[in-house]
Amino acid sequence: MPALRRPSRVTAIYLILATVLLAAGVFAVREGPAAGLLPEATWGGWRSQEVLHWSAHIRVNAWAHAAEAEIHMGKAESITLKAYGEAAHGTTSMDPTAFTLTPDGKLTGRELTVTG
């Protein structure tokens, strides 16, 4: 019966390094900025929502903790938010409104007061 060969230290180090890199890659896609690289088929359909007289189209990713929103005030102004792993924030200039999009697809807005 042949003796079992023990993996060398170099092999063990490569296995540990590969595991760490794989875990980092999965985390980047699931929670971080790489969520935008996911296949189009993983994104759900666009749903429409009105927030403070703004028209919004929102979609959520099925694989990652990510959402995207396109927000429009007619043809006058638009803003795109991408919440990949954490909430995204944006402010419009025409009708000062601050929007927040969470990775689960919840969009909120609040009108800003203009001083001056």
User: What is the N-to-C order of secondary-structure elements (H for helix, E for strand)?
Assistant: HEEEEEEE
Radius of gyration: 22 Å
How far the N terminus sits from the C terminus, by CA atoms, comes to 88 Å
**Share in helix:** 10-25%
Which quaternary structure do these chains form?
A: single chain
Largest sheet: 4 strands, antiparallel
Supply the helix-strand structural class: alpha+beta
Residues in β-strands, percent? 35-45%
Provide structural commentary:
- By secondary structure, the protein is an alpha+beta fold.
- The chain is 20% helix and 36% strand.
- The chain is built from one helix and seven strands; from the N terminus they run αβββββββ.
- The strands form two sheets. A four-stranded antiparallel beta sheet has the order 1-2-3-4, with no helix packed on it. The chain has a three-stranded antiparallel beta sheet with strand order 5-6-7, with no helix packed on it.
- The N and C termini lie far apart (88 Å).
